[in-house]
């Protein structure tokens, strides 16, 4: 089944539940009106108020005249119940198998034209179940009135300023335990009323869904922004920590955690490009290198020069090398004129070459 059909039925059920809840809430504060006397002598009404249990007020109202002020004020926002006189409805009885108790509404609806002189759409009816001598059957009493009688009674009360919410019969019958409802505004609710409430409920559901989506998107964007800010703050903190730890002596670097040790070594290690540039400036033109090894701050170079001992002074004066010394003997080259040197030094890291 399509989702739109399911949602439509669900909203329709909610609309009917809403109407039923409204009727039950208003029914707790009821005002019952029953006709008494001859209609030709004027409409004489017996008014019972739920707030004055056990007390009734008998009011004679001429045709077309408004209700007294105290009754009119009491009728405002009340649930008005009209009790029809005994001569305005007919009673019929029928026997139904006891197993069909749950099916009584459908059974009565199918039999209504047989039980009364009016068509089903021209009749208003209700039923109750009384005791039966046969335990296998139900004694069902059906009370029926015509729509014309019901509409006329409602119009007479409407002329007095009363809006009828429910029409009952049977309470004044000698064998009636509770009044039988013949008509109610909820049961007779038009498709227009249900459609109006359904549209309202549908709008509320759509608004709730939209607000939920907006809140979720806002929460997601806020969380993403907070994560981004947290990452930025973490990056700045890590940079500050590396700057602080970069000032530590190199002998303390091995005691750091592996990630921090890697950063410290990276930031404290000399830049090879700068070291090579410093060597190219310090070494004379008649010398050249065959090997260069930069291990942390330790530099080892091997090469040929005309005068190997004279290389120590310019390397020390370069400003980038300290503790310059030979780590292996100097030997004469194959041509007999040049000497192979093996020099080791400690590199001091600098950001740039002086004068560069």
Per-chain topology:
Elements: H1 3-27, E1 30-35, E2 43-49, E3 56-61, H2 69-75, E4 79-83, E5 90-97, H3 104-115, E6 123-130, E7 137-146, H4 147-159, E8 164-169, E9 180-184, H5 191-246, H6 258-268, H7 272-282, E10 288-295, E11 298-305, H8 312-317, E12 321-326, E13 331-332, E14 339-347
Parallel strand pairs: 1-4, 4-8
Antiparallel strand pairs: 1-2, 2-3, 5-7, 6-7, 8-9, 10-11, 11-14, 12-14, 13-14
Q: If you consult CATH, what is the topology of the domain at 30-76 and 78-189?
A: Dna Ligase, domain 1
**Proportion in helices:** 25-40%
The CATH architecture of the domain at 30-76 and 78-189: 2-Layer Sandwich
Gyration radius over CA: 52 Å
Quickly give the structural class: alpha+beta
Total count of helical runs of at least 4 residues = 8
Placed side by side, the strands forming the largest sheet appear as 3-2-1-4-8-9
End-to-end Cα distance: 80 Å
Largest sheet: 6 strands, mixed
Shape: rod-shaped
Which CATH first-tier class of the domain at 30-76 and 78-189 would you pick? Alpha Beta
Classify the beta-strand content into a percent band: 25-35%
Poorly predicted tracts of residues: none
Average of pLDDT: 79
Number of strands: 14
SSE string: HEEEHEEHEEHEEHHHEEHEEE
């Amino acid at each position: 089944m399509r989702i739109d059909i399911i949602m439509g039925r669900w909203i329709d059920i909610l609309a009917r539940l809403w109407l039923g809840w409204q009727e039950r809430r208003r029914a707790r504060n009821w005002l019952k009106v029953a006709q008494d006397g001859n209609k030709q002598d004027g409409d004489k009404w017996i008014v019972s108020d739920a707030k004055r249990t056990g007390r009734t007020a008998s009011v004679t109202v001429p045709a077309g005249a408004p209700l007294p002020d105290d009754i009119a004020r009491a009728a405002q926002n009340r649930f008005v119940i009209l009790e029809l006189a005994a001569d305005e409805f007919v009673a019929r009885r029928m026997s139904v198998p006891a197993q069909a108790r749950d099916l009584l509404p459908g059974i009565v609806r199918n039999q209504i034209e047989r039980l009364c002189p009016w068509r089903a759409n021209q009749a208003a009816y209700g039923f109750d179940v009384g005791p039966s001598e046969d335990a296998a059957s139900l004694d069902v009493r059906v009370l029926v009135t015509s729509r014309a009688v019901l509409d006329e009674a409602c119009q007479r009360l409407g002329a007095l300023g009363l809006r009828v919410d429910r029409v009952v019969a049977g309470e004044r019958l000698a064998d009636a335990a509770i009044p039988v409802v013949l008509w109610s505004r909820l049961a007779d609710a038009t498709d227009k009323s249900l459609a109006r409430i359904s549209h309202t409920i549908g709008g509320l559901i759509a608004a709730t869904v939209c607000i939920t989506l907006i809140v979720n998107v806002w929460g997601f964007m806020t969380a993403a922004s907070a994560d981004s800010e947290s990452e930025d703050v973490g990056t700045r903190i890590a940079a500050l920590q590396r700057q602080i730890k970069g000032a530590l002596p190199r002998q303390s670097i091995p005691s750091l955690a592996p990630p921090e040790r890697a950063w410290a070594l990276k930031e404290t290690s000399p830049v090879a490009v700068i070291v090579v540039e410093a060597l190219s400036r310090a070494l004379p033109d008649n010398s050249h290198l065959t090997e260069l090894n930069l291990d942390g701050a330790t530099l080892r170079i091997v090469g040929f020069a005309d005068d190997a001992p004279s290389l120590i002074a310019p390397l020390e004066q370069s400003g980038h090398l300290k503790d310059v010394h030979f780590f292996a003997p100097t030997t004469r080259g194959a041509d007999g004129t040049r000497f192979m040197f093996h020099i080791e030094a400690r590199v001091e890291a600098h950001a740039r070459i002086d004068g560069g």
